[in-house]
Design brief:
Blueprint (H helix, E strand, L loop, with lengths): L4 E5 L6 H11 L6 E6 L4 H11 L3 E8 L2 E7 L2
Parallel strand pairs: 1-2
Antiparallel strand pairs: 2-4, 3-4
GO molecular function: transferase activity
Keywords: Transferase
Pfam families: TusA
Length: 75
């Protein structure tokens, strides 16, 4: 999946992955995709809820080598 921007939020604890995601997605145009990499296990539920409440779309999420990856399409 092609991303307009990749955000490295690995090693950050809640709420920093959300704070950084919010700032990063503000720089994108509507319809562009932000790829987020995080290691905080709470990020999955946090980012899912945040994307929905903000009018964005969580396209996909995966986990590989304890790194959670999210693709969020800006609404």
């Amino acid at each position: 999946m092609e991303s307009a921007k990749v955000l490295d939020a690995k090693g950050l604890a809640c709420p920093m992955p959300i704070v950084k995601t919010k700032k990063a997605i503000a720089d994108l145009n509507s319809g562009e995709v932000l790829e987020v990499h995080a290691t905080d296990k709470g990020a999955k539920s946090d980012l899912t809820a945040w994307a929905k409440s903000g009018g964005h779309e969580l396209l996909k999420d995966t986990e590989e080598n304890e790194v959670l990856k999210f693709w969020i399409k800006k609404g």
